[in-house]
């Protein structure tokens, strides 16, 4: 393995370790957003969702995780055209976001599948993220 491949795998392994908690926190933020009843809480939750998704998207770009980056953009696109007030009155939006987040977990899982077994050492992404979906 050359230096570049070793560096890339090292970045991917670090990304994988850091992405797990980030995606779990994103699920929690989306749940908080769905349950928000006032404009201030909704604004704060929406801002947090955007920050987490941007961070994931940029980190995914750094490790050439194209599918994860594309799904991150889909989350932003889904939220992008929606006014804060409409979030409370459009429950179908959260069904779409749940499907998109499941795709995000699948994209993260696909990165894990590409990693050597010696670099994993933790529960699979699919089990951790999809298994802990909010009710």
Folded structure, characterized:
It contains 6 helices and no strands. The protein has helices at 3-35, 39-62, 66-80, 84-89, 91-114, 125-130. Mean pLDDT is 75; it is low at 119-123. It starts with a helix and ends in a 5-residue tail after the last helix. The chain has 135 residues and is an all-alpha fold.
Features:
135 residues; mainly alpha; Four Helix Bundle (Hemerythrin (Met), subunit A); 80% helix; elongated
Rg, rounded, reads 16 Å
Largest β-sheet summary: none
Helix and strand content put the structural class at mainly alpha
CATH class: Mainly Alpha
Unreliable stretches covering 5 or more consecutive residues: 119-123
Straight-line N-to-C gap: 44 Å
Number of domains: 1
Write the H/E string, N to C.
Answer: HHHHHH
Mean pLDDT: 75
Helix proportion range: over 70%
Can you count the beta strands? 0
Please tell me what the overall shape is. Answer: elongated
CATH topology-level fold name:
Four Helix Bundle (Hemerythrin (Met), subunit A)
Blueprint (SSEs and pairs):
Blueprint: H1 3-35, H2 39-62, H3 66-80, H4 84-89, H5 91-114, H6 125-130
Helix pairs in contact: 1-2, 1-5, 2-3, 3-5
In short:
The protein has 135 residues and is mainly alpha-helical.
């Amino acid at each position: 393995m050359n230096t570049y491949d070793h560096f890339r795998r090292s970045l991917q392994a670090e990304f994988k370790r850091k992405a797990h908690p980030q995606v779990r926190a994103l699920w929690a933020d989306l749940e908080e957003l769905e349950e928000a009843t006032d404009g201030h809480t909704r604004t704060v939750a929406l801002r947090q969702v955007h920050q987490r998704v941007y961070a994931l998207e940029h980190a995914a770009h750094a490790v050439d995780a194209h599918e994860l980056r594309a799904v991150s953009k889909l989350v932003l696109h889904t939220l992008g055209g929606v006014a804060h007030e409409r979030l409370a009155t459009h429950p179908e939006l959260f069904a779409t976001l749940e499907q998109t987040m499941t795709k995000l977990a699948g994209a993260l899982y696909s990165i894990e599948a590409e990693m050597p077994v010696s670099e994993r050492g933790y529960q699979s992404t699919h089990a951790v993220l999809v298994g802990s979906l909010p009710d």
